[in-house]
Amino acid sequence: MAAGLLGEEEWDDLDEGSDDLTGYRSVLRGNPPRSRPYPTWETELDGITDQISEWHGGSIAVAVPERWMIDAVEQHLAQTGMRVTVIGADGPRDAEAPVHIGTMHRFKGLEYQRMILAGVAEGLLPSTHVLALKNTDPARYRLEMKQARSLLFVAATRTRDNLVISWHGRKSRFLS
């Protein structure tokens, strides 16, 4: 799944370098990723809660493309009694919490048994800011699009067993 997000081009490795998938082979075989479309952000939050409840333990993460989404996910899950923590610049605030929440940028180098990539919607990934560059700054648009796709790829590779990709409204062009 994650490899399919990048295609055959060279990509930003999010560590000030570039990489491609030449010779890439995973030795792990998890379940196939599941896609979950929702009509609104509120129904997507309900879907995230339901999915985490179904998983019954293990290390679980929710990655989102925008910072404002972290608070919404944290509050929604906490209201149901789930113990959650936010991943900050120094890592998870409470490493023992069963559910970790953060922006996709924060997950590089971390691994979870189960993961939800939430908000993978057009206008969020890529952002409306990036999409607006297409006509005003085409070179920067191409760079920002490549970085956004790379971000999704890195986030999708942070899970070992189960990956759920959800969105509200129109799904991201990167999932097409």
TrEMBL record:
Residues 1-40 are annotated as: Disordered. The keyword Hydrolase applies. Keywords: ATP-binding, Helicase, Hydrolase, Nucleotide-binding. Residues 7-19 have a biased composition (Acidic residues). GO terms for biological process: recombinational repair. It holds the Pfam family UvrD_C. It comes from the Bacteria. SUPFAM superfamilies: P-loop containing nucleoside triphosphate hydrolases. One of its GO terms (molecular function) is 3'-5' DNA helicase activity. InterPro entries: DNA_helicase_UvrD-like_C, DNA_helicase_UvrD/REP, P-loop_NTPase. Residues 97-168 form the UvrD-like helicase C-terminal domain. The keyword Cell membrane does not apply. GO terms for cellular component: cytosol; DNA helicase complex. PANTHER family: ATP-DEPENDENT DNA HELICASE SRS2, UVRD / RECB / PCRA DNA HELICASE FAMILY MEMBER. This is DNA helicase.
